Fold:
Amino acid sequence: MEEDFDIIILGTGLTECILASILSCHGKKVLHLDENDYYGEECSSLSADQAWKRFKGVEKAPANLGRSREWNIDLVPKFPMSNGNIMKAIVHTGTTRYLEFKKCKGAYVLKKGKIHKVPSNGQEALTTGLMGFFQKTKLQKFLTFIGKLDENDPKTFEGIDPRRASMTEVYKKFGLDPESCDFIGHAMALYLNDDYLNQPALPTLKRIRLYGESVTAYGDSPYIYPKYGIGELCQAFARLSAVFGATYRLGVKVDEFIYDEKGDVKGLKALGEVPRSTKILAEPQYVPTLVKKTGQISRAICILSHPVQGADNADSGMIILPQKQIGRKSDIYLSFLSSLHQVCPKGKYLAFISTTVETNAPQRELDPAFDMLKPIDEIFFRVSDVYAPIQSGKSGIHISNSIDATSHFETIMDDVYRLYKELTGEDLDLTKEAEAQERTRRAAGCVVSSQDLEPEKQKPKAPQPPPPTEDKDKEEKKIDKIIRKQVEKK
Structure:
């Protein structure tokens, strides 16, 4: 490692792995280190044995759960939106060849104690009990307005400028009542709370449009999910980065940062070596004096032997419990998966609950979601601190945000855009045809072995699930075909 690098990245969380992939594809020389002996940080996926060791302190999971390697248990419950920015990053870098996706069957929302499916087509919109007939008509006009809206063309504003008007004013213009606004803001714009109501409307309108485009892509819901767990995303981006020359070392503890006489970083010391770079990207835990705590998130992983009640016996989905429906200041998210996503054995289900901590009893705050899942075979509960940089980029040290409580990856991608601009001085354009993408296509036949990504003298890892087979069901073929068409269009 005694050499010069354009950028040194500390931590293999999803934000860091995406940036390593993009920067490597764009010709940057990257050194990527992690103090852990596995990829993913908070976005890793655990086998059953790994989960029991982490949460219960025992080496082996109960035998009645089946083989440990049949389980891929996500630490962070998030679903990619099928037309979201993370999918654009996957297409832009060519990471598609390392991943297989399945769509999630449903998006649901709680209203007055009952779970309702969020409409995904015209027929469902007509029959939904989420709003009355007249509100449905007004919602249709509102969605038509969003579909035609062009922020650079005032003729599409229909008398209200979304760049200046608040979201409350936009709702009022279209005659949407409080219940409809609550549904739109939390089940479509996917906000955690109501802070957005008094802010400029344009970002919210874009989020609603993204939701609609994502539903249209595959039907049923706006979400898709990588087979074998969210941890596959981190590893896929890391593999692609390695193809383009990034150096990876796991299990490496950073001893100290090295600064020049002006106080700017010029490298770091690790394992007795001094890799050099004037730009370091770090996760918050690597720079504790340069970050501030902004809150906490409570998360629970639940193992079930039955599908989630009230969700149409769906094999996967997301249920949103809006704040006003459960007497809170922020929403609770309940997501669930099955063996069809290669995360658990047949007959078992994984459910994930998360929310922002508001009291001194964080586990009890999740009771409304726990009640929906009973009986529960096993619960893994934890509280995570959330950190944000005090001043990212100072002295050449750039810092990512902790993963938040939202249900999707759009805020992670916001961080990717911010950090890319800090590191390169340029805006990241994931739609732009770059020379690196041509190299990606030429490298499409490359196979990266696990040895390419393992640190020297690494301890043996738990067995991983077998790679995806060539035989895909019709649904997977459809998703693959659409994603690859996006690549070809570029």
User: Anything to note?
Assistant: The two ends are 36 Å apart (CA to CA). Residues 98-105+293-388 form a domain with the Guanine Nucleotide Dissociation Inhibitor; domain 2 fold (CATH 3.30.519.10). The chain has three domains: 7-60+78-88+227-292+389-489, 98-105+293-388, 123-218. Confidence is low (pLDDT under 50) at residues 433-472.
